[in-house]
Model the fold of this input.
Amino acid sequence: MTFNELGLRAEVLRALEDLGFENPTPIQEESIPQLLSEDRDLVGLAQTGTGKTAAFGLPLIESIDFDKKFVQGVVIAPTRELGIQIAEDFKKFTKYIKGANIATIYGGASIEIQAREVKRGAQIVVATPGRLNDMIRRNMVKLNQVSIAILDEADEMLNMGFKEDIDTILDQTPNEKNVWLFSATMPKEVARIASTYMNDPIEVTVGTKNAANTDIHHVYYTINDRNRYFALKRMLDFHPEIYGLVFCRTKRLTQEVADKLMKDGYSAAPLHGDLSQSQRDHAMKKFRDKTVQILVATDVAARGIDVNEISHVIHYNLPEEVENYNHRSGRTGRAGNKGQSISFATGKELGRIKSIERIIKLKIEHATIPSGKEVCEKQLFALVNNVKNVEVKEEEIEKFLPSIFEQLADFNKEEVIKKFVSAEFNHFLEYYDGSRDLNSKLSDRDKERGERQSNKRDLTDDSKQRFHITLGTDAGLNKGAILRIVCQHADISSNEVGRIDLFREFSFFDVDKKFADQVLNGMKDAEFNDEPFKIQFAKSSGGGGGRSRGGGGGRSRGGNSGGGNRRRDGGKSFSGNRNSGGGSNSSGGGNRDRDRRRRRS
Ligand code: AMP
Done:
C-alpha cells in the first residue's frame, strides 16, 4: 500500500514525499484508513519507533479545517521533548497547507510566548498536561471546540502522576469528540481512561501486547557492582562503532558516568534534568549530529529522543520499574534497523531480569563479558578497517610526503605496517594487558533469590521516609501534582511514592527510604506554578528527622576520579568519535598505569 491510496490531501502527500515516507508502516496502514472513514475512538498499543506519530497525526490533520482559527485537535504527551518532537513532525506534515498553525505547550518556557502561539490561530495544540492545565485555568487556551483529543504514551503520563491533569483536560473538551489513545503497555489505569472516555474504540496493536520489538537483541551480563563502570567501558571498547544510549538510575549517577567516560577519552555527553534546557539541547544536538557517540541519560530525559540509528541501548542500571525496560530498549532497533539492548545485573538483580523477560515475552540472553584479548582483537580489526577505508587528503599531505618517505626509507612495507599499527595500538594492548575477568560468578543462592524475587515487589511498608513540604491545597496542589513534582525532580518512579496527605498550607508524602536523600536533594530547587517551597524530612518518621535539604548538591568523586585518560583510537572510523586533541585525552601513562594496577589487584 502507498500513501497515495490512503486518501490524504495533496499537500500532505507532497510533504510525505519530501520526508521520504514511501509506504505506510503497519500501524499507519491499520489506523489511518479506519480513522479517515469513521468517527471513531481508538486505542493503539504501540511502541515509539513504529511510526505512530504519523498514524495519529495524518488522520488528525485530515480532520482539521485550516481556514478556521480555533483549536480543533489537542495532543497530550508526557514530556516536553516528546511534545516538541510531535509538534515538529506535525509542522513537517502541514508545511504545504496554507494557514496551518501548530502550537507547542510545555513547562519551563515562557507561558506568554506559548499563549501567543495559540492566539495566532492554532488549530492543533501539542502539550504536556501540567502546562496545558495551567493555560486552561488562565484562559489562555480553550478546548471547547476540540473534535479530536489524542493521548500519546498514556502509560508514561500515568507513571508520571498526570492522571488528574488528564482528567481535568478531557473534561474541558466537548463530549462528542473522539479520543485516540496510544500506549506502549496497557496497565489498569490506562484501561480505566479508555473505558471512561471512549466508546467502542477501534483497537490497533502493533506487535504483541507488551512485547518488545524483535529487531532488538537482548543480552545481559552478570557483574559485581564494583565492576559496573569497568564492564561498561569494556562493552564500549568491544563495540568500536557504537552509537548508543546509556541509561543510569539517577541524575547524579548519569553525570558521574558521563564525566568518567569523557575523562577516559570516550566521546560521551550527559543528558538529565539537572542540566539547563540549553545544555540539554546542546547535548542532543551533538548526539543527533553524531559528534557525540554515547549519550548517558536518565529515563525521563531520554523520553523524547527520536534518533533512528541508535545501535545499542545499555542499561547501566536496570530500570526501577521493569515496564520502563521497553521504553528504553525501544530507542534502538527502529525503522527496520537492528539493535542491541545490553543490561548489567548483579546476583541480586537477576529477579528483575526474569520480570523483564515476562513483560517483553522474550528471552534475555546471558552473555559473557569479553576478555581483554577479545576486545583488543575487535579494536585491532576496527583499526585495520579504518585504515582501509580512510580518505586520503592528497593535497593536504602532499607537501609532507617527501620527508616522511625519507625518514621511513629503511623499512619495508611489512615493517611500516607493523610500526603504524603499534603506534596506534600499543596503549590499548598495555591497557588490557593482564586485565581481569569482569563476569561475576553467581552463587546458587543468587540464582534462587533471583527466581524468588521475580515474583515479589521489593518495597515493604515500613521502608518509607516521610517528607513535609510547605505548600498545600491553598496553592492549588493536588496528589497528581505532588507525584509529578517528586518524579520529575527526584528522578524516581511514581511507584516509589506512597501515601500523600494534603493540608491547606502544607503537605506530606512518603517515599521509599532508599531514595530519601535523592528526593531531598532533587527537590532542592523545585517549584510549583512558579512558587518555590521548602522540603524536609517529617519529624514523625524514623530516618533522622528534620534534616532540611542542604545546599551541597555537588558531586564528589573521591581522589581516584582521574580514570585512564586512555585514547579510544580504535573507534576512529566513527565520525567525530573520540575527543581528539585538546586536553582530555592528552595525558597518558600515569593514570592508565594506576588504573591497570587497581584492576589487577
Ligand atoms: P514514531 O514511532 O512516530 O516516533 O516514528 C519513528 C520514526 O519513523 C520517525 O523518525 C519517523 O519519521 C519515521 N517514520 C514514520 N512513518 C514512516 C514511514 N511511513 N516511512 C518512513 N519513515 C517513517
